């Protein structure tokens, strides 16, 4: 069941417009790596030049969009906006193909016969094309480009530096699970990290752990077992989301939630509960998750699946079924969930039923190398120690110029979020380090471009 | 007209079997970067394990096949065979998709509707897959892999290190014109280098330069102008080939030729000739080119085009029409040819007529970066100073670990050819340097793999 998790890496309700940008469109080929298909289509990008010192070749801050409409990333990646003035940078947020309005075949794009060109390699090639266009098609690019991204977007930021270092001077890759493909990390690590956040609150993880059996027996006696698995999945997904967005401030990033949402939810589970009082505690906890900030409380319709599911991110399920295979499991021992082993055979068959493709489980490893990054340079990987996706990170710096920053008390790419008075020193320090790296990358790009290169 | 040049980068007559290998097959997806097409097919590779110290993780020497049947590259890349014992290396030569017997759609592969998956990116991904298979699908590869290639194969050797550094420890890229895409180098440089080889011989280039007008006027009075352009193209192509394979030993590499073929040809053109004596000199020169080593001399059928054209390399014309656009022109002033400007519009239209595609003239630059190699590592680019393809090289080393070796008195990737008693010190020195680099890359791969890496 844990496959559905992947869908929730990045989905949005309530996009608030904090920042100003122009919406633009850029034409790309459907297939960058073959000539058989001749179609082109347009991807969306958001642009702001208010801070840009164009005449003196100010940098371009380029967000490598991930699985969702790009406006959401623009509005929640406050870090880029907040440092743009200091760097006199142009800001660009590029939308990932097949998401938002960047659909090659319109509303039919996610159908079996049209979805095949939704891959990370094609998306990276879109961004490479767009960056070249922003550089005015110059053989020797003039503006230092810094890539930014969080989560799958962080993977893309790292990957574009790895694959296109001639186009990108450096990359800030936040909460990027680049080491989570089959065979890399233990599949239960993700849920152990989720559990750790709940364990910080007395009895909370214990109560949740006990609740599964209770819910199953209660449900089967009351409603029959028809929807019980959906309910269990809904609850699991809720706890994972709470751990991911366990920010020190209220946010609508994935779904509207209060500051420190795990602690808020756990206040209803902070005693040793059993039977109906345990069910009641779980219900109150979920009520926070489902109804926070709503004027009138609504009954939770868990049968709908992820409550923040929207059409625009539907493509992720296909990506998870093809190249983005990231095994997740639970043991019921080291985590607070029911035991659920990673079953690749079933996973594959489910994918085949839905999309008529089997996963290429080695595709991302072969293409990007996992953590074999000895040849890479100018990348910062940042991971929040509260963030379950840190399961796909790695703990020590690879080389002088591939740095790993671990951020205590930080959930999913907190370092990219808008700053808040509630931010503690770990995330503030991380942002300072990011800036030091960015400055260094820009300086070395500029030093290099001063040289006059002589050709034969 | 210079477009046809590209076809002659690498074509073969007379494949002699000097070396022993097993012929094997490896299954690859038709499309590595999309899921729309589900076909797979097999590429051929040649393997020799006679020298391999498998138990102690001896290296794998991997030739990234270029536009032709792989046996030819195996037989002429003597350098790999000659150093294999010293390195206790396994030898692999991989055939490029759409060439030789590695055709995804059999005999129909080069037809318009099937040829679209013939791109360098797909070929590199084939090789990445194959290397992973040779590493037994291990997440942490155990055998250091060194890529080798000459000409377009040299580009691929460099590119596989650039794009897949987690799979390839280093690359020897011989005579690789990686800096020859539109906007990079001057289009007349290629033919100036051709001319320089003929200039070394008294009157030779001057006589050739004078011959064009004479041939045109003679032909129009005798035969009419019907085939005159074919004849001119044939002669131009012959001179280019002679310059490319101007080796110190007799070779059948492109076509059977004596040692120092430019000097041999020029012996008929080493006086100031005019009129019929000039035509006679040209005829004798071409007779060497066309009939060397043949038991009975044959009349040259220039209407056939390149005399060493064969079916197996037919794909190169498509590659030149899509991503491998390398502008070549002649001025008639700084070179010994008729003036022929680079006309991209005409080039594009010709391509469209043939393949129903327009060139993507920026594709290779965006994908591989031209000479913007500051982030690359562990690559040696070697260029022979007699080789016209050095026009697409660059003269100074990029960084500590991207080295450029210029080889005096050397034609097209002489350093990869089997050694010969006629070899002079420049090419011997180059081979020594290659070995130093290879040793260094292997050592650092091994040092790295001793570390125990701890994951979260």
UniProtKB/TrEMBL annotation, chains A, B:
Keywords: Glycoprotein, Hydrolase, Protease, Signal
Residues in coiled coil: none
Residues annotated as signal peptide: 1-17
GO MF assignments: dipeptidyl-peptidase activity; serine-type exopeptidase activity
Family listed: Belongs to the peptidase S28 family.
Domain of life of the source: Eukaryota
Magnesium is among the record's keywords: no
Protein name as it appears in the record: Lysosomal Pro-X carboxypeptidase
InterPro entries: AB_hydrolase_fold, Peptidase_S28, Ser_carbopepase_S28_SKS
Organism: Bombyx mori (Silk moth)
């Amino acid at each position: 069941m844990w496959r559905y998790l992947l869908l929730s890496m990045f989905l949005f309700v309530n996009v608030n417009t904090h920042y100003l940008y122009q919406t633009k469109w850029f034409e790309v080929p459907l297939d960058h790596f073959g000539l058989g298909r001749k179609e082109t289509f347009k991807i969306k990008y958001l642009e702001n030049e208010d801070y840009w010192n164009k005449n003196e070749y100010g940098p371009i801050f380029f967000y490598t969009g991930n699985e969702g409409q790009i406006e959401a990333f623009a509005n929640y990646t406050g870090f880029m906006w907040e440092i743009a003035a200091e760097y006199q940078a142009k800001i660009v947020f590029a939308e990932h193909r097949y998401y938002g309005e960047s659909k090659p075949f319109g509303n039919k794009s996610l159908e079996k016969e049209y979805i095949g060109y939704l891959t990370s390699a094609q998306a990276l090639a879109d961004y490479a094309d767009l960056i070249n266009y922003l550089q005015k098609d110059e053989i020797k690019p003039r503006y230092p480009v810094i890539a930014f991204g969080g989560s799958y977007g962080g993977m893309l930021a790292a990957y574009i530096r790895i694959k296109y270092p001639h186009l990108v001077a450096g990359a800030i890759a936040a909460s990027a699970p680049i080491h989570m493909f089959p065979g890399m990390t233990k599949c239960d690590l993700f849920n152990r990290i989720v559990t750790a956040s709940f364990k910080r609150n007395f009895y909370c993880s214990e109560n949740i752990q006990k609740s599964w059996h209770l819910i199953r027996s209660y449900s089967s006696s009351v409603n029959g077992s028809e929807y019980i698995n959906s309910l269990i999945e809904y609850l699991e997904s809720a706890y994972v989301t709470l751990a991911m967005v366990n920010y020190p401030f209220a946010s609508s990033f994935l779904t509207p939630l209060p500051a420190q949402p795990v602690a808020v939810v756990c206040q209803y589970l902070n005693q040793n509960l059993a039977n109906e009082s345990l069910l009641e505690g779980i219900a109150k906890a979920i009520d926070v998750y489902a109804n926070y900030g709503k004027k009138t409380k609504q009954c939770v319709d868990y049968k709908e699946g992820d409550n923040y599911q929207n059409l625009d991110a539907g493509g992720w399920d296909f990506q998870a079924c093809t190249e983005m295979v990231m095994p997740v499991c639970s043991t019921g021992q080291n985590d607070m969930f029911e035991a659920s082993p990673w079953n690749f055979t079933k996973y594959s068959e489910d994918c085949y039923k839905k999309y008529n493709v089997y996963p290429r489980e080695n595709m991302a490893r072969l293409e990007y190398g996992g953590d074999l990054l000895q040849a890479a340079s100018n990348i910062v990987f940042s991971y929040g120690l509260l963030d379950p996706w840190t399961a796909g990170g790695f703990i020590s710096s690879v080389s002088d110029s591939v740095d790993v920053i671990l951020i205590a008390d930080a959930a999913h790419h907190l370092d990219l979020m808008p700053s808040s008075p509630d931010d503690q020193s770990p995330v503030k320090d991380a942002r300072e380090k990011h800036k030091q790296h960015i400055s260094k990358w820009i300086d070395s790009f500029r030093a290099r471009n001063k040289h006059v290169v002589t050709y034969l």
